[in-house]
Amino acid sequence: MSHAEHHISSIKMLSIVFGGLVFLTVATVLTAQLDLGGLNVPLAMAIAVTKASLVVVIFMALKWDNKVNAVIFGIGLLFVAVFISFTLLDTLFRGDLSNTTEGTIQDQTLEEEALKSREPDAAALEFNQIPQ
Amino acid sequence: MGDKGVFWLPDAMSTFAGEVDALFWFVFWTSTVLFVAVVAAKLYFMFRYKRRDETSVPDPVHESKLLESAWIVVPTLLVLFVFIWGFDVYLRMNTAPPDAYEITVRGKQWAWEFEYAEGVTTFTEMYVPVGRPVKLVMSSSDVLHSFFVPAFRVKQDLVPNRYSSVWFEATQTGEFQIYCTEYCGTAHSAMLAKVVVVSEEEFASWITEQSQDLPPVELGAQLFAQCALCHAVDGTTKIGPALNGIFGTQQKLTDGTSVLVDEDFILESILNPAIKVAEGFQPIMPAGYSGMTPKQLDGLVAYIKSLK
Amino acid sequence: MSESASGTINYLNHDKSIKSWLLTLDHKRIGIMYLIAVSLAFLAGGILAILVRIELMAPGETIMSADAYNQSFTLHAVLMIFTFIIPAVPAVMGNFVLPLQIGAKDVAFPRLNLASFYIYVLGAVIAMAALLVGRIDGGWTFYTPYSTSVGDGILFVTTGVFVMGFSSILTGLNFIVTVHKMRAPGLTWNRLPLFIWSIYATAIVQVLATPVIGITMLLLFLEKFMHIGIFDPALGGDPVLFQHFFWFYSHPAVYIMILPAFGIISDLMGTFSRHQVSGYKFVALSSVAIAFLGFLVWGHHMFVSGQSATSSVVFSLITYLIGIPTGVKVINWVSTMYRGSVQLKTPMLYAIAFLFTFSIGGFTGIMLGVLAIDIHLHDTYFVVAHFHYVMMGGNVIAALGGLHYWWPKITGKMFNEKLGKIAAGLVFFGFNLTFFPQFIMGAQGMPRRYYDYLPEFQGYHLLSTYGSWVLAAGLFLILGYLLASLINGKKAGLNPWGALTLEWTHTTTPPHPHNFLETPIVTRGAYDFHLAKELFATGEEVSEVVTSTH
Amino acid sequence: MANAHSDHPAHLQHHFVSSEQQFDAAKMGMWLFLVTEILLFSGMFVAYIVYRTWHPEVFAHSAELLDPFMGGLNTIVLLASSFTVALGIHYAQKDNKKGLVINLILTFLFALTFLVVKYFEYTAKFEHGVFPGAAFDPHGVSHGVDYALYNIPYARQFFSIYFVMTGIHGFHVLVGMGLFTWITIRALKGEFSSAYYTPVENCGLYWHLVDIIWIFLFPLLYLI
User: Is C45 a residue whose pLDDT tops 90?
Assistant: First the structure.
């Protein structure tokens, strides 16, 4: 029955990966202090994905594991992606037709108040008027 | 009524109701034809290939690739056609014309409130002019509700803290049923109202007549329409206690104490219904009525006071 | 192998102590314990359904108050969905049949299997405890903010659903591993019985979707008791987001409910037509495809909720992608009978009834998927009828077929065939009488979850209530003759239906505690009747346990 | 492993044909379980992403209240625990009982450290009224930070998500500590060897996943 010996990761390799993970953690904390404009979020996520991949591939030994397990893990991630992206299809496009408004009533009130405090005369926003 | 309708769908009373119906009937008849075909084939095979010889072991049938693909391709084309058609109608149903007459609709447990730009508010009846697009800007003051007029084929959820809207253009005058179709509590099924479709002239005169100032008791009587679901004025017990003749009496409460029914108590019961609950009743009255203006509250108190 | 032992020792009689049942690791006994628990849940949910139908015989108060009605329909739904339909076929028949059909001695993790039974019982008890606390209305969908504003009963129901979710996950996980790792030699994926394929697809959905109802229930719970503001609009939360969370599980969950039914129907069609199931590969793989696509369409429950039109359009389009493989499945089941040798025993009657009711459920599903039509039909009785045609007309009718089919193997006794046919007729007639009128009144505008209604709908409601009585009569008749068969039923043969799957050809009736006396070696597909002509050569019932298929 | 079947080792359950089959089945079961864990957390990630896309500035502002140093420290603590678990499995495969036990104990201690740091983070927030839910009412000044500045609309959502996410994660850490206690006792009894170390392997997989979740929580909540 037995076809292959179980893979044994060497201490050296595990140590190198651990070192890399610590390095990436320090890197993500430091880069987050810089103002990179729109790049901060993608960079932090890229580092997180790299770290997670190292843990999955080496520490969890998925590289040497049965392929089925990799497929299972991949399917799990795929469905997280489905959950996120399909929900965003709604929340990012809320109010794209006139049957719903984009913002909440609370947001509109806040906006009105902000306008009023800045320029009392400009606050003639009708209650019924829904900003599109 | 006018919306009893024929078999299956009620009569179409809005401009796009006919389009929805055409689509409905197309899918309905296509489905019926396919369904009858499947059932007929099933019944035929059942009897034609009935086991007559216990030893018979039929050989597998070689599947025809052409037939298999036809089963996939034809329905795919059919549903794509239906999808595009449905999408087209949906877009128009959800895009109100810019010149539509606007009415603000508020849903609350368990009443509808229709507020017109002219400062008029109604509760059990929504008047709209015929042949003119009407857009309802809706929100809920407590939980989810859903505004549904079968005759117009419109439906839209009312979400608290958010405006949603429907629009329609009525094609005939008459009265049509409004339902709440999102479950909203004890009296969900009683959260009904009517759309009254009238001619442009009638609508104009109705709105002028309504916008005059009313004496407090009459204003209260009008507002009471939204209370009448739970509170009777003829002594019968509904979801809540009857309100006639209670002014000035002592009311027993669930905590064993009793309280004098005066203006303050009535007002408190409207604003904070859960604090003092009449004996024998559940504390289910919603707090959603606290949003009324002081003038409206005064009117309501005056009306309840006047009930004998 | 000693032949003498095989006839006497079986999983039912080898140890009769109560402890040996309650602590059993045997998948067959666990299956039976599930059968009893699930039947009780069905009975409880059914009684509530009857009460709801009686209340609706006339407008206004008939037998109960609005609050009692609202709680009845809510509890009816919660019990039927979470404690009955979801575990019914996978946990009862999956448990009993799956290891037998793949030639395994047990599921991969027997202890986990027993644990998941007790977790299920615990969850069901917690959910029912809500009855004592009261005020659990709002329907099984728990939409916020209503659900967070009503009484504490919701605490028990959400906790119960949360707990039962673990049971469902563990069962699914167990089955996936079992199918992957425990198949008998020679049982390739192309030879698997279609019941296994469908249970496998179901298990995938159970594992992927159920955790999300867990987190949803947890958040709902925190929303109610800590006001965390994720779903409650009064605090800046978004109730529509709750609906996304809820339907991400609950739409795939309807595939947890219907996919196993597909498997049963495939087995019944093949066996009773004594014919290769038409389009085997398509039927097998489409179950898995439907399971995956089932995750991409949840938003079709939300066309009028206020979600963006963009997402409505995408969800509507993908909904059709599921309709097509499902439709082709129906055609394949029908064409399995073509040039077959059809025997109309009770289980097959249920399969035939299924084709009728499920097709109606499917076609009306297409209607509800059309954006413009759904706006009119949404939240009306049309949806109620569609749902019951798929769930009851699909799952329950198929489950009854499966129960009759495997009853001789499970108990070793035959039921009364004549009563079986009468009951099948009653169930079919009663079911259609109950739910078909609901399509019409729904299309006319009768909203769902209504305690009171306008008098013009009374005729339909009356028909529906009468139908529910016929349906109940049929179900009680089944209960009666099945119980009677335990006492005075004819002893069942090894393979009374002449099936080719391993539970019929390689085990005794009832099966041995370890299922197989020697590991079966499989050399043909589950429906390759033409390769097994020798089994049927005498025209007698197949009565010998085969030790290898050639 | 090859001759495991013939001499039928004690750990082999009757319904499996071989140790190999049992090991593969257990491991596959574990991976499936990990997928359910990922899906469980995905709900919180969805809530986070939705509210972040709606109110990016509120989330960026609220995140300032969290201390990236503490979060970073905890990240390294968890990474170290992942490392020791991997080492533990390495030693189990090499039949080195001592190495296995030491690494399991180290893992347990790292997990404990993580929770202690978390405890200090939580209490520092609670002191200033930063609670999940209804009690949310940031006030007071400490270390030059005026908490009242964070009492803005939708900050409640950020902190609710923060507490629920880290709370569920912390619960998983707690469960992990229980598992490692159990595994350490079994290891001390000498139950594991290169021929049978499935529970160590599976607990390790679970622990790595807890680590991975944190790898994502850290930048999402503390940094961006």
Answer: yes
Contact state of B35 with C143 under an 8 Å Cβ cutoff? no
Number of H helices, E strands in chain A: 4, 0
The 10s digit of each residue's pLDDT in D183-193 is 999 999 999 98
Kindly report the average pLDDT of chain C as a whole number: 91
- A27 in contact with D, Cβ within 8 Å: no
Instruction: Give the closest-approach CA distance of D7 to chain A in angstroms.
Output: 14
SS3 of C423, please?
A: helix
pLDDT digits (tens, 9 = 90+) for C292-329: 999 999 999 999 998 999 999 999 999 988 888 898 89
Identify the three-state secondary structure at position C548. coil
**Going by CATH, does the domain composed of D19-127+156-223 fall within 3.40.50.2300?**
no
The CATH label, of 1.20.210.10, 3.90.226.10, 1.10.3720.10, 3.30.470.20, for the domain at C25-536 is 1.20.210.10
| Residue B109: pLDDT over 60 | yes
Considering only the beta carbons, identify the residue of B35, B181, B188 that sits closest to C363: B35
Q: Tell me whether A100 touches chain B (CB under 8 Å).
A: yes
The pLDDT of residue C249 is above 70: yes
Tell me C105's DSSP state.
S
Contacts of C469 (CB under 8 A, 6+ apart): C50, C430
> What is the domain partition of chain B in residue ranges?
1-212, 216-306
Give the three-state DSSP class for C134. Answer: coil
Q: How many CB atoms lie within 10 A of CB D203?
A: 21
Contact C109 D46 (CB under 8 A): no
CA C229 vs. chain centroid, Å, equals 35
Does A have 3 or more CB contacts under 8 Å with D?
yes
The CATH homologous superfamily to which domain B216-306 belongs is: Cytochrome c-like domain (1.10.760.10)
Give the DSSP H/E element, type plus range, for residue D145.
Answer: strand D145-146
Domain boundaries, given as residue ranges, for chain D: 19-127+156-223
- Most A CBs within 10 Å, among B135, B162, B166, B167, to test the A interface: B162
pLDDT more than 90, % of chain C: 78
Q: What is the 3-state secondary structure (H, E, C) of chain B?
A: CCCCCCCCCCCCCECCHHHHHHHHHHHHHHHHHHHHHHHHHHHHHHHHCECCCCCCCCCCCCCCHHHHHHHHHHHHHHHHHHHHHHHHHHHHHCCCCCCCEEEEEEEECCEEEEEECCCCEECCEEEEECCCCEEEEEEECCCCEEEEEHHHCEEEEECECCCEEEEECECCCEEEEEEECCCCCCCHHHCCEEEEEECHHHHHHHHHHHCCCCCHHHHHHHHHHHCCCCCCCCCCCCCCCCCCCCCCCEEEECCCCEEECCHHHHHHHHHCCCCCCECCCCCCCCHHHHHCCHHHHHHHHHHHHHCC
A105 touches chain B (CB under 8 A): yes
pLDDT tens digits for range D19-31: 888 999 999 999 9
**Is D1's CB within 8 Å of A5's CB?**
yes
Judge if ipTM > 0.95: no
D to B contact (≥3 Cβ pairs closer than 8 Å) = no
Least confident among A95-104, C299-308, C366-375, D123-132: A95-104
Mean pLDDT across A71-77: 94
Tell me, yes or no, whether chains B and A touch by having 3 or more C-beta pairs under 8 A.
yes
Cβ separation A79–D39 shorter than 8 A: yes
Kindly state whether A54 is in contact with chain D, defined as any CB-CB distance less than 8 angstroms: no
Which CATH number is B1-212 given? 2.60.40.420
Angstrom distance (rounded) from CA C314 to CA C431: 34
Instruction: Categorize the per-residue pLDDT at C3 as very low, low, confident or very high, splitting at 50, 70 and 90.
Output: very low
Angle at C197 between CA B60 and CA C550, to 5 degrees: 50
